[in-house]
Write a structure and sequence with these properties.
Radius of gyration: 14 Å
CATH architecture: 3-Layer(aba) Sandwich
Number of domains: 1
Number of helices: 3
Largest sheet: 7 strands, mixed
Mean pLDDT: 91
Order of helices and strands: EHEEEHEHEE
Distance between the termini: 24 Å
Number of strands: 7
CATH class: Alpha Beta
């Protein structure tokens, strides 16, 4: 597996995000409550996981505040799950955040994503109070990790 850094203009990232959106729609129903917060048009920090030159997973970060990056659009293709692809993506996003001078990562996810929850728990993310625009969305979970 190879991990590369890119941005949201990458066509493979956009393809994976479409798959992510379909997956979330299946889990949460057609109108995924968190979709309004998932704009990817201007993400400068995107990570792709490649296997045999095919993108099998993705994730991104964007600035949340002066010391915190927000992890966004984490996804691993179904055929690549269970191989620690998500963990490798997460590790790269955390490293990139540190390189950019940030000391914390936050994220939100839907409650019907148990695989994601296990990934974040294994990697020392803890539940935090819902933040920003997410405070009123009952299906969201917010997590954070000091880097």
């Amino acid at each position: 597996m190879k991990i590369i850094r890119t941005n949201s203009q990458n066509s493979e990232f956009n393809r994976l995000v479409q798959s992510l959106n379909l997956d979330l729609a299946k889990r949460d129903g057609k109108t995924h409550p968190l979709s309004q917060f998932n704009d990817i048009s201007n993400l400068n920090y995107v990570v792709l996981a490649l296997k045999n030159d095919k993108a099998i997973g993705c994730g991104a970060i964007s600035e949340y505040n002066y010391n915190t990056m927000e992890i966004k659009r984490m996804y691993v293709s179904p055929e690549a799950r269970g191989q620690r692809v998500g963990e490798n993506i997460l590790f790269e996003l955390e490293n990139w955040s540190k390189e950019l001078g940030y000391s914390r990562c936050v994220l939100f996810m839907g409650s019907k994503q148990p695989e994601a929850g296990k990934l974040y728990q294994r990697n020392s993310y803890n539940s935090i109070e819902k933040y920003g625009k997410l405070k009123d969305i009952p299906d969201s979970l917010c997590l954070a990790k000091d880097l």
